[in-house]
Amino acid sequence: MFSQVEVEKIALLIHSSKSPVDQLILELGGKGFCVKDLAEILLEMKMEKTLFELVEYIPIKIVKQPASYIEVGENKTIKLSVEAFGLPFPRYQWFKGDDEVPGAMEATLQIDDIRDEDEGIYCCRLHNSRDPALVKFTTESEVKVHLKHNLKLTNSDEDDLGKGGSVCLHHHIINHPRSMSVLLGSSFTLVCEVSGNQPVQYIWYHNQEFFTETSSPYLQVDNATEYHNGHFHCVVKSSFFEVKSKKATINVTVHRNSISKAISPEIITQPKSCIVAMGGVALFCCEAKGSRPINYQWFKDGEVLPGSITSEYKISNIMSVQQEGLYQCLVSNRYATKLSQGAFLKINTCLNEPVLSPDHTATDKVALLIGNYEYRCERRLNAPKADISNLSEIFSNLNFKVVSLLNLTLIEMKNAVDNFCELLGPGVYGVFYFCGHGFEENKSCYLVPEDAPTGYVTSHCLSVDYVQSKMQKQETEVSCLILDVCRTANKVTCPEVSVPDYISMEPSLNTVICYATSCGQLAFENANNGLLVLSLQKFLYTRISIEEVFAKVREDFGISSNIFPKGKIQNPEVKSNLKHPGRSFCDEIQYTGHTQAYTRRQLDWERCLLKPDDTEFVANPQELGIILQLNFQTEFSNVLTVFITVKNPGITQNCIAYIGKHPNTISLMGDPTEVTSDGTFRKTKNTLQDIQKIKDKLVITIYIKYSLDGKNYQSEDTLVVLDYPLVAKLQLWRDMKLPCRREPTEQEDN
């Protein structure tokens, strides 16, 4: 075979723009070696991508487990290491209890300057496939730290509280977290309310281990997994008191039937953000289905609104800007609890807002929002889906033409950007937002697509320079890029490559870029949202300039440093060369002189959002007389929700229908779910994702379960053709470059 020196010599050819693989094959052939020998050499050289062409997938095998017990003094350093093999090479994520350790994605976890709060149970998750069944976990490692401080109050401390301290002892929990059973992959919410109105912190524990800390009385988990099984409790504390809730047991169940009956509440109408003038009325609605009775409780900025316990929350005769804020509804029945999306109330008054110049208008406003969270070879993210949903609603309310997409490949991302740029033109405000994994290389930022391979480099990702150059070529009035990604160096060192033409082009005016974090730093998320969007959504409705919006975001991060993980920091960075800095996201649209371009843009945009028409028909076999109704809803431009209602069960009993088959290029987001469990009409919710991958007309097969003469049956021969819904018409899956079309011009309207 080859010596270590020979192997390294071949590997170094990559730095001289030559191919180590070609040289290796020549050397092996000359020595009479076979493919097996080639695979062994590629493995030693860690050339994963080429090796994967020769060797089939190899499941992860843990060769060496981390130490089961480590005892160490404060301010020391510990290392937990795991050795494993698989192909693709394993990816790592360390956990403390059930919490991810931020940034701990290597085979070795090193904790420097260890403290008492670092004490706990650690383990590492390993994966090299998107299949959850192939994920491996190490054995648990217990870390014990000496000289841990005793945080309990001493007698002297209690004496120092004086009279105020005795009063604080009367604080008690008035609403304890409730036990519940939840479906795998669904969301659940725990609530812990305490008496009094003092500022408090809510510290949540899972199986006696620290889980998270919140400033509001509820804990929401969006994607329940088997690891959430067990006991949760909450410790509520302030400077003067501390109380502990009762334990709530969470049982995560897996339904193996084709359809799951949602006895837990399902929110089918989310509250919507709104802008209301002083003296006006705001109305928030939250509709839910499930086993009755269904209970409602409204919150503002995380605080309970006493007495607000119906599906609608109305604020009449608004007279104070103090009523601005984020409103949410907690929906519950005896089986589970769900928290609605947040709806922001913005009060429009000239008394508290600057008057924008009437000269600042746009010929149109367009936004492309992309969120990637399901990665093949990276950890799953929590925030993108909720962040895209929130920003989509906000920008829509600001009269932007919004296209929102989830989980795109590199080809799909490029084609989406190209199509987006065709909607831009002179006088247009364009906003591009991306949330997902990212990195920075040679002062350029790269966005990671969901299909990025193990060991991805810049060529596998979308360059922000590409997006910026495509937008600038359209001579927009505002090109705004909001990048919610990390800006640390890539894990894999990339060889020097030639610089594409679009990077070396001269930057034009009217571009503003908001990075979620500064160069070399990470961007963080909590259990539900990215920290950038949590701050950004507070200011987008405000009638101030775009630059002022981002300035307020930076200021907000400065005063909210307690939201970051321990020892971490996130500083948003803004770059701007707007020719007219006073332009605002709230500017009005005035398309005089651009009517043809505006009309064409409107038609192209509506084409991306076109959903199937609602329909009603007799299902097969028709002699049963079953009448089905299909209704369609969209929250994202590549996700289609199909509600299937049994309007007439015919001669059958217990009749229910759901999507049983669909093209293998798309998938269901979770199982079909029954959203009504009483009454005559039984309805299921079926959510189809990856609509952008459809290559032929979308055909679904509806399965119908029913009883007849005391026996149970299932019909599987009702086909429904849904054509090319939403962005399917754009064929984003095609590996091609779309021509950039210039907009027609016309004379000023008289």
UniProtKB/TrEMBL annotation:
Signal peptide: none annotated. It comes from the Eukaryota. It holds the Pfam family Peptidase_C14. GO terms for molecular function: cysteine-type endopeptidase activity. SMART domains: IG, IGc2. Coiled coil: none annotated. Residues 363-490 form the Caspase family p20 domain. InterPro entries: Caspase-like_dom_sf, Caspase-related_regulators, Ig-like_dom, Ig-like_dom_sf, Ig-like_fold, Ig_sub, Ig_sub2, MALT1_Ig. One of its GO terms (biological process) is proteolysis. Residues 59-135, 171-253, 265-340 form the Ig-like domain. Gene3D superfamilies: 2.60.40.3360, 3.40.50.1460, Immunoglobulins. This is Mucosa-associated lymphoid tissue lymphoma translocation protein 1.
